[in-house]
């Protein structure tokens, strides 16, 4: 870090900006960095054009603003859930508990048709959107903004309804599921 602070941000006489013009790490190295992030696991749900529920597992979800209440989700281009929430202008987010690992796996399985992913899972409809009834917490959002960044879309949702239950969160770290068993504050 100390060395980085010394990097001149002015382009050189030859027009070379040290930070901007470096080739940067390759995709594999960046994915290695992303794998070291720890995140809660969620299921983002929406209704498709025919009114059928669809949903996918998402770990790239974060709080964005408290006033107004906004969340940010990053969804890959081509995702059926992304298409549905774009079409309908609304989506829901269910934060999974440690007991819902199989739910996370099913909602990430491209071979399972979106509507079948809900089979046997208790669902509630809130403001017309499906939320997973046994979730740690859920929210229903109106799409505030969608922007394409590289191979993902940044979806900003304005929170219209929210509920928080108890339980331990399901976490995603180093390409594996974890929970907070035995975790202490440090
Ligand atoms: C733990 C976990 C986290 C994931 N997080 C994301 C994510 O943040 N964004 C994303 O686009 N895909 C994510 N995926 C992959 C999607 O869940 C997967 O591509 C899914 O099949 C997409 O479904 P759809 O095309 O029907 O919308 C994740 C998968 C797993 C297992």
UniProtKB/TrEMBL annotation:
Top-level lineage group: Bacteria
Keywords: Oxidoreductase
InterPro entries, alphabetized: Flavin_Rdtase-like_dom, NADH-dep_flavin_reductase, Split_barrel_FMN-bd
Single biological process term from Gene Ontology: pyrimidine nucleobase catabolic process
One GO molecular-function entry: riboflavin reductase (NADPH) activity
Coiled coil: none
Every Flavin reductase like domain range: 34-179
Stored SMART domains: Flavin_Reduct
PANTHER family from the UniProt entry: FLAVIN REDUCTASE, FMN REDUCTASE (NADH) RUTF
Name listed for the protein in its UniProt record: Flavin oxidoreductase
